[in-house]
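Problem: given the chain below (499 residues), write out its structure.
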Amino acid sequence: MNYTTVKNNERIQLSAIPELEYELFWELNVLSLMSEEHNHCVNYFGFPYEEKIKLICCIANDETHTIYVSSSLVNTSTHYPSFTSHVLAFEKFEREIHENFGVQYNNHPWLKPVRYARNRANQDETIATYPFYSIASEELHEVGVGPIHAGVIEPGHFRFICNGEQILHLEIQLGYQHRGVESLFLKKDNLLQRTILAESIAGDTVVGHTTAFVNLWETLCGFEADWHLQFSRTLALELERVAVHTGDLSAMCTDIAYQLGSSVFGRLRTPIINYFQQWCGCRLAKSLIRVGKTNFVYTEELAQILLKILDAYEPDFIEMCKELFRLPSALSRFEKTGVISQDDAKKLGTVGMAARMSGINRDIRSSHPHDLYSEMQHEPIIKHHGDVYSRAQIRREEILQSIANIRKLLQNIPAYSPSTLPLSSPTANSFALSLVEGWRGEICHCAITDEQGALRCYKVKDPSFHNWLALGLAVRNNEISDFPISNKSFDFSYCGHDL
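Solution.
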């Protein structure tokens, strides 16, 4: 067998992953696995190994709920055929491998830097000399936005090429402030420090990334979380989805100058995030999720508080949605704006809402379920037009779906009994992978340990890593004035991309 098969949150020996010659590795993943409709790449990365670079490719089958893992050992003095030349979804993965380790590809269509890590292979490549795409024409002009986003105050540069008001091309360049999160996971040997690192990957996805980390670490250590821990993590994920989707609807209303929607949705978000403060002392849910334990036991009293919040939230939310989704001026800005076709979404390998808006059934809660999603029989919300309106509809329906899930969870609050057994150390020479469906989409954390059980490689993939190129394609032939609403309707992460 040219690959090994694992489940979400399953640990295997690193030696169990077949090591293939690169040509066979290429054929397996590009021509075989990625040709199957239900398969997509959840992670593809490299790490130093025996004075070479070991590549690990993880292809998930969403129908069989399994992940195919294979590897290849390459060096930096040889040029290799790229995966991207046949499957566009690999483009950023290979660009990162090239930037980090100097692995050369002879036919990659767009081998540009991704993040400008301080330890990048080629120090001559600097952000000041980034090779933007350009078109020579007296009729066209360029518009630069950034490098600091005016709203979220995060680094990112957008370079538009326009013909009058019409966008012909958008190039998105990130990486102005490379944080080195993945390398810090290796440098920090304290579990609490690593957990706080996971909480800091993306401030709007604290629960999502921390859940991926703790599930992965518990898998490495052979620890099985009890029902209460899984209950708390599942509940927190659903609350985070409600909070951020609500805030995004507010921001989308702001971008089309609909002040009523902006104010009402903004007000509705507040009690949801304030509830996290009541639960764990932080509105963003930091300190809530911990490996092998909880410091904030969920109680019946907390449940009653949450039910009152939802009872007040739900009717106002439904009423505001009725106003928004029948308002002609709002619909004229939402419909047929920022469209991604299903064919393009598939080629890009989009995940989460950026996939489901175009009719692609891609949702970890149903395809590779974790925590209590295994019992919930989750049904993804799918739309088919790939525009701003589809993305707004998904948010509305996912909020109502999450509220229903929360109400069901609160009907049976499990008791919590702290484990009396000490948490063991991670197993030596192991590989493990954890997938979590955050509100933005598929989060993937991978870990590899060495002979002593210490972390040898820790790889984080935020869903935005898959999806940023979709925004660049979505705004083509749109007016530049429609860029803000297209951008916010996706709401990709700057910091989650810059790891």
